[in-house]
Design goal:
Helix 4 links the parallel strand 7 and strand 8. The chain is 29% helix and 22% strand. It is built from five helices and eight strands; from the N terminus they run βββαβαβαββαβα. It has one domain: Rossmann fold, CATH 3.40.50. The chain is an alpha/beta fold. The mean pLDDT is 96. The protein is globular.
Length: 210
């Protein structure tokens, strides 16, 4: 993505996991580590997805080191798709080996948001989470876990008004019992075509808030 991008390999339960690490500008001490999960592997989702890259850029802009990785069976990551179970193991392996200490942020797009919610459940409350970002949360297709009340103030949920993959109503049904606010992008599609700069600015505003 930029001159500060580094390609890594992490050992997962299904084999090698392919990871890209995007660092802040040279000489800037990272504020923490953000781990970002991509959309559904069986529908072309990879760590190079434009929304995932936009999330990485937002984190880097706010001083975070951003980790994108391919789920099992995607790119150079070994293993086979496992409907979220093995993918949660992949996410945890990246956290444990690349972000074992210090401030941690989790983010996910679409299927990645579902896996991120499962990973959050495995980490919380033994590991403090500084920021959470859900984009296009796949609430109509998977059982996206609820966000602990203590983390609501650290959580951003963004959804497109005209998302035809995950209807906005499904995300509202998921968020309503939690009283978890949802930021709706007017006219936004699932992949935020033509609105990625707006998506980035919304995430930056959340990350840079005190």
């Amino acid at each position: 993505m930029n001159s500060q991008t580094e390609r890594l390999q992490v050992a997962g339960l299904a084999g090698r996991i392919e990871v890209l690490r995007d660092a802040p500008a040279e000489g800037v001490s990272p504020r923490g580590v953000a781990v970002i999960a991509h959309p559904h592997p069986l529908f072309g989702g990879t760590m190079d997805n434009k929304v995932v890259q936009t999330l990485a850029r937002a984190f880097v802009q706010c001083g975070w080191s951003a980790l994108r990785f391919n789920f099992r069976g995607v790119g150079a990551t070994e293993g086979m798709h496992d409907e979220g179970r093995g993918e949660t193991e992949d996410f945890l392996a990246v956290v444990q080996q690349c972000a074992a200490e210090g401030p941690l942020a989790l983010a996910g797009f679409s299927f990645g948001s579902f896996v991120m919610s499962r990973t959050l459940g495995a980490l919380w409350p033994s590991r403090q989470i500084d920021r959470l970002v859900f984009v296009g949360a796949a609430a109509s297709r998977f059982q996206v876990a609820q966000v602990p009340q203590e983390l609501h103030g650290h959580t951003l949920v963004i959804h497109g008004e005209h998302d035809d993959t995950v209807p906005l109503a499904a995300v509202m049904d998921w968020a309503r019992p939690q009283v978890l606010p949802v930021t709706v992008v007017p006219g936004g599609s699932h992949f935020f075509h033509g609105q990625l700069p707006l998506l980035r600015s919304l995430v930056v505003r959340h990350l840079c808030a005190s």
